[in-house]
Design a protein that fits this description.
This protein has 209 residues and is α+β, with helices and mostly antiparallel strands. The chain is built from nine helices and four strands. The protein has a four-stranded mixed β-sheet with strand order 2-1-3-4. Helix 7 crosses helix 8 (181-191). The longest helix has 24 residues, at 94-117. It is globular. The model has no long low-confidence stretch (mean pLDDT 96).
Length: 209
């Protein structure tokens, strides 16, 4: 007999973007099983490459469906477990902002900050060819959207808040971006959620194991 945990399997490493998905899983409250993978071995073995040919984490399987990419996993889980209330309902005007900022964080924000971390800078005339334009423009756009707000889409917590606040928190903790007040205020609101605290404790224990 397949257990409830086997319906939903989480593939991760505690020192990876999987921390964001761990938080999402703790928010939805459904039973899940975790498979911890090592960067140098199991992440590149055939068994896992059959799930994610990129050989990267995180990934989940849910009742036969395979989902990779952190933002896609968060969006999928929000829809698969609507009782958790982590996505505005279809037809709700906040649904547009929810999609916008969830994928802005996974697209322009991650691309801009990753390029900056590796000292890549396009020539000034090339900025219009990049999806994010410039790092400064990307950060200014996020700051403008967050200033004076606790939630990025409507007035309640959603998977977009989870993903954006987790990523901003990561960037600031590693000094990859400046600690703007709007970012710090926004992150502090959501980092104290019980599910966020549980997720951090689980991954911290795995790092120390």
């Amino acid at each position: 007999m397949i257990s409830a945990e086997d319906d939903l399997v989480f593939y991760s490493n505690p020192q990876s973007r999987g921390q964001i998905v761990r938080w999402m899983l703790e928010e939805i409250g459904a039973p899940y099983r975790t498979e911890i993978l090592d960067y140098a071995s199991t992440m590149k073995e055939p068994a896992y490459l059959a799930i994610n040919p990129m050989g990267k984490v995180p990934a989940i399987t849910h009742r036969g469906a395979v989902i990779t990419e952190g933002a896609a996993i968060c969006a999928y889980l929000a829809d698969a477990f609507p009782q958790a209330g982590l996505a505005p309902a279809p037809g709700d005007p906040a649904r547009g902002a929810y999609y916008r900022w969830l994928f802005f964080a996974a697209g322009p924000l991650e691309a801009a900050t990753s390029n900056a971390a590796f000292k890549f800078q396009a020539p000034a005339e090339g900025a219009r060819s990049l999806g994010y334009g410039t790092l400064e423009a990307t950060l200014d756009t996020v700051e403008s959207a967050l200033r004076g707000r606790s939630h990025i889409a409507g007035d309640v917590f959603s998977a977009a808040d989870l993903y954006l606040s987790a990523y901003l928190g990561f960037l600031m903790s590693f000094k990859m971006i400046e600690k703007r007040q709007a970012f710090a205020d926004y992150v502090s609101v959501h980092a104290s959620r019980p599910a966020a605290v549980r997720a951090k404790e689980i991954d911290a224990a795995l790092v120390g194991a």
